């Protein structure tokens, strides 16, 4: 069947990527697009690369406009979707690409975001390992997504890091405290609002750190995911993002201490087992590491791991397209699962490179 | 007085940067430039930005050509300078920008480089803290450089990371094991030889890790420097470099565990004390972190630190121009010290930005 | 039906883009990939972004390997395909993405390429206007492509410029002499062979002209196309390409003198009429001009025109992805036409932006 | 002697480059810096690369603050300096890097800028050829700058293009109508104000044209300069700028029809004669063309010319750093001349590359 779809926040970067992917999806029909300051204007004025959607006009982002669609994707600034989604009465599946419904801890929300807390929705990272009850086998997050009606798409950095650490934590081959991640990330993740520090002249030819020292909002989201994967207590994580001169992409270098008594083969085996059957998360052969270029436009997370015995740490390097697998692709993959559509529908594993 | 200068390896990136800086230096006169495959050609054919040196022709890189100069800078591939420098008979000051004379451990050389070992020369990082004998105050590396006749300029990544950790190690406010560094670095550090993986199309718009898992050659150099700064034993370091799309620059994010019982103020004080009087290493105010753009062309290392109490780690972010402060600037600064010229002569603290 | 396909030169940039597009094409089955120095290795070692083709191994590029496929795409260096294609005995449709079969003039070939001349094949730019015999209406190049068995895919710069000027020449609203084009182009068009001048450090942060002064090999191809579009004599064209720091993309700024007595409205009408019904060439509204970002990965040529009455010139700005619409997309679009498959099959109009 | 200097608009890009150069200038002492919205803040908060100026605080941009300095540089948005400079009573030398005092034609000002017209000041392009009265030899613009008290620094694009065409026009070897220029330019020329179309994500990996079709404000300035160089009537010029992903730099490709009966040698000789004795404008040998990288941070304009006999056009490719030779360097060079300081003082010919 064909599902009617609305995209709220269609004039931004995440909204644009949702539409690019939805335009190729055989089961979704884009019926409505909304935008705040651009309401009334053609979508293509904001998204000149979406030539096949030249017929669409941006409408106001209101519950009335959005209600009545089978599926609504929200690509709004953090804090903007919570009040809106609460007013929906006739939407089968709502997927929030913003942060409003990601955190299960109200105190984490207060500490890292502030403003009104909204309850957490089903987390949209299908490949994430979910520890079972004592004695039961681990499952995947996709099991919880099947049949879901409200989904929180992940933060792009958060899901990349969670997928990087989860196999080792679930298998007990790494320690779950003293994790360290440094990310190289392109500025499209920061959105389309005009700020001086995001100007091209400020970003080209330079690497610029931000949110240094434990203040990035994706930290509690990562911790929450890793607790779900089996960390016995909330992991400690040093997390530093660095803006680098590429419009898209995340390269996350994540390291963890190898658990005492664990062999290198056991470490590698944990990641191999975790992703051997996954369509969209690929562990590269030993000695190979991914480049973000190879994931651009794709729903793929490429991962390479090294065991540094001298340092006593495993190094996991993961590459994703922050807008695709990091945001819009994850949202559509999750929607596919929720609706019973084959999980890979409308998504590609092949990147646009070079 | 004016010192006669030769630069060996003048057609490469490090050689070009040496010449750019030397051309403005009031005490040095560039008399000879040498290049391997380009010998006999005008320098400017290899270095079209060095307009003031259009009169120079590249000569062969031989001991005969180099001998007789007051100062010779070597900017040759690793392994190429050792045999050459051994044959010099009449050079007051030789400075090697390659790795051949950096490591004091022959086994480290064998493990990370291979080929014939050459004895270590005085290490060219003037600001580096050097622990004193028991009971004696710490000194700086510049004290050893005064009057030196043979100097090993540092690896660009190595000096950046050593400067990042040394204050904390020397002051005992961080643990010297389980260090973690991830660097964003531009490809000029990889040299001018043509390799497919360094093509523009392979590097633009993407972040590409390399030497993952403890294999990078700068690791033993960092460990050596940190032992010198007072680490009680050889530090363990997880070190991952990532090529990002900027021609120059290193942004090193380095983290270490805060020593038990140490306050945040004590941690910050260690770095403040270390660099308060330095011309070329600047600690930014609390909450500020550097961008590589601000160091381009300058001999400046900009540093910011954060104390992440939740993670139990200090995060040190350091930015340098890999060719300037990372290589050629460090070499000239060290040469100034060795010759008794004021240390900052011919060097600038101001970057070319944006 | 499904056509069996081979790609010769599958380890390069054009080969990679052909495969990326073919992998999504419902009527083509990629059966064979060949590569010169990489024969025997997995395709994915050369093309790590093509995750869905991880099962393919590169074979030698020989007639024996290629014969027997329904369709063979050649993505070889110029001069390499001519001898090879002459030996094929059992290939229904051969499409050469190199230059060997583009030029109808043996003397142009000798002047701009040299080496053995190969006869011209049907030119693969479907939207190109083809002037009719005297008294007959103009047609499009796609009419000649229908049923073709040998197709020369265009040079990426050449087709972009030909499409930019053809409407004006065909309609007689511009003069066909004294054309001027300056192109900004990314380095992927220069191929994957390692050359110093194509290193990332040589290309990032800089604009580098090449082939200045009428020496670029695409000039005779453009002239040939414009003669076909109705230029009364061979047009004169000043053509200057400039490498800029983006891996993909061509932005061609082309200007021509407005024919005496022609109004601005008549000029614009010529381009509007030419492309109003085209799927893959879009004329933007008056006052809007394209960006290459909006065409990345797409088979789209975006075009904007301005009439500069003070200068007496029309300015046509055209954006394409050099690897997609410029090369691989044009090849597949032409193959679709030749085989009677709907022209847009397996191709998208939407770019990957930002 | 030492001149006291103020820089108005010190928080922007042009202001920053002025300060970077002034900081190294032995005859100028930076005493005052002003900024609009940043008044009261440390300069270094806006210009974190200017480490040697960490002691300066931004003041309000008022006549009172600026009066009393020997030299005042204005780096304000167009339209902002005119009213301000009119109120100065005690400034020996004022140099406006904005457009307010560039145009001698009030109608050109009205057509391209609008707002109140301010009288033109002495144009700050020292190397520009100025045609003599009938029978008299040509001079240079530097002759008019000697002793000047009010100087209009040029538009960065305008001076680059004027220097490109002037030798041919002055020598009569090219036609002065039907000129065509296409420029690749980095976004720092567009200033530091936050606009969506200047965001990093909008500019990386893409070439974006703007002001297409004869609307760019530098067109009348170029025409004015070329009339001064001897064009018999106002030249017609098709001018198209293209933003490309580099923070700094202009690569201008300019073409003109070769005058009938002129030989290639005569054409080249015109440019050679024009710049043979210039310190900051270098004509490259035949067959060589410049890259913007080689001019970064330098006061150098590198130029290459080709005679395309088939097209009947000369092609002049000129590279400059838009902020240095294009703006701040030109201003300081002109100030040197005006004050009788050696022209090259405080400026370098060597670029920062790669």
From TrEMBL, chains A, B, C, D:
Keyword Cytoplasm included in the entry's annotation: yes
GO cellular component, one term: cytoplasm
Coiled coil: none
Pfam family, any one: Semialdhyde_dhC_1
Segments forming domain Semialdehyde dehydrogenase NAD-binding: 4-136
Main location: cytoplasm
GO molecular function, one term: NAD binding
Compartment list: Cytoplasm
Keywords tagged on the record: Amino-acid biosynthesis, Arginine biosynthesis, Cytoplasm, NADP, Oxidoreductase
Active site, UniProt feature: 156
SMART domains referenced in this protein's UniProt entry, alphabetically: Semialdhyde_dh
EC number: 1.2.1.38
Catalytic activity: N-acetyl-L-glutamate 5-semialdehyde + phosphate + NADP(+) = N-acetyl-L-glutamyl 5-phosphate + NADPH + H(+)
Pathway: Amino-acid biosynthesis; L-arginine biosynthesis; N(2)-acetyl-L-ornithine from L-glutamate: step 3/4
Any GO BP annotation: L-arginine biosynthetic process
Purpose: Catalyzes the NADPH-dependent reduction of N-acetyl-5-glutamyl phosphate to yield N-acetyl-L-glutamate 5-semialdehyde.
Similarity comment: family membership: Belongs to the NAGSA dehydrogenase family. Type 1 subfamily.
Descriptive protein name: N-acetyl-gamma-glutamyl-phosphate reductase
Source organism: Leucobacter aridicollis
Gene: argC
């Amino acid at each position: 069947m064909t599902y009617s779809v609305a995209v709220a926040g269609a004039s931004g970067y995440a909204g644009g990527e949702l539409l690019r992917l939805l335009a190729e999806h055989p089961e979704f029909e884009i019926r409505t697009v909304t935008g705040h300051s651009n309401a009334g204007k053609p979508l293509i004025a904001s998204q000149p690369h979406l030539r096949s959607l030249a017929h669409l006009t941006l409408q106001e982002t209101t519950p009335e406009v959005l209600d009545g669609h089978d599926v609504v994707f929200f690509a709004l600034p953090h804090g903007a979707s919570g009040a809106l989604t609460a007013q929906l009465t006739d939407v089968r599946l709502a997927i929030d690409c913003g942060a409003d419904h990601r955190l299960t801890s109200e105190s984490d929300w207060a500490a890292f975001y502030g403003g009104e807390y909204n309850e957490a929705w089903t987390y949209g990272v299908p490949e994430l390992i979910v520890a079972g009850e004592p004695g039961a086998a681990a499952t995947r997050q996709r099991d919880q997504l099947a049949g879901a009606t409200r989904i929180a798409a992940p933060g792009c950095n958060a899901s990349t890091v969670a997928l990087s650490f989860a196999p080792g934590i679930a298998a007990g081959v790494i320690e779950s405290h003293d994790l360290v991640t440094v990310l190289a990330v392109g500025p499209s993740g920061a959105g389309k609002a005009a700020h001086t520090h995001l100007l091209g002249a400020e970003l080209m030819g330079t690497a610029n750190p931000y949110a240094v020292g434990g203040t990035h909002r994706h930290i509690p989201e990562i911790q929450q995911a890793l607790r779900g994967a089996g960390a016995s207590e909330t992991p400690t994580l040093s997390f530093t993002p660095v803006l680098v001169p590429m419009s898209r992409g995340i390269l996350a270098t994540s390291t963890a201490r190898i658990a005492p008594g664990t062999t290198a083969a056991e470490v590698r085996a944990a990641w191999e087992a975790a992703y051997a059957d996954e369509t969209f998360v690929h562990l590269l052969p030993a000695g190979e590491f991914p480049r973000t270029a190879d994931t651009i436009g794709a729903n793929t997370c490429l991962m390479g791991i090294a065991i540094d015995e001298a340092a006593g740490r495993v190094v996991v390097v993961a590459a994703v397209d922050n807008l695709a697998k990091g945001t819009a692709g994850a949202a559509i993959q999750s929607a596919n699962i929720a609706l019973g559509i084959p999980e890979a529908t409308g998504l590609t594993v092949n990147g646009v490179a070079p």
